[in-house]
Write a structure and sequence with these properties.
Length: 123
């Protein structure tokens, strides 16, 4: 990857990553698979492609902080407390800053974007 003036010049085909993660989820006994495509240690932003097979879920868990979910493939339900929202491919959801769960109504792939630390100021 090269950068000019802080702009990365690497392109990643999300459709290919989605296909790869669905195949990995189908091969996994858990029925899910994930791959971080950006971020990790030393980064403020983390983006992870997560595949869940129909009927599988991420049980209720703490909010990772400020986060969004974009559905790339399939249909999912995001639930927090007594509220829930269903989303399909192309939809974008803001993850509430509270305990929540995610369930796949059909084989699905989502892009999870999380701010892992307070935003840095840029001079």
């Amino acid at each position: 990857m090269t950068a000019e003036h802080g702009v990365a010049s690497t392109t990643l085909a999300l459709a290919g990553v989605a296909d790869e993660q669905l195949a990995a989820a189908r091969a996994a006994t858990s029925g899910r698979s994930a791959r971080t495509i950006h971020g990790g240690h030393g980064h403020v932003l983390r983006q992870t492609v997560l595949a869940l097979l129909a009927g599988r879920a991420l049980d209720e868990h703490e909010s990772p902080g400020e986060a969004t979910l974009q559905v790339l493939v399939g249909r999912v339900r995001l639930a927090a407390g007594d509220r829930s929202a269903e989303a399909s491919a192309g939809d974008h959801l803001i993850i509430p800053p509270e305990r929540h769960s995610l369930a796949a109504a059909e084989d699905s792939v989502v892009l999870l974007t999380v701010v892992t630390a307070p935003a840095r100021t840029v001079p």
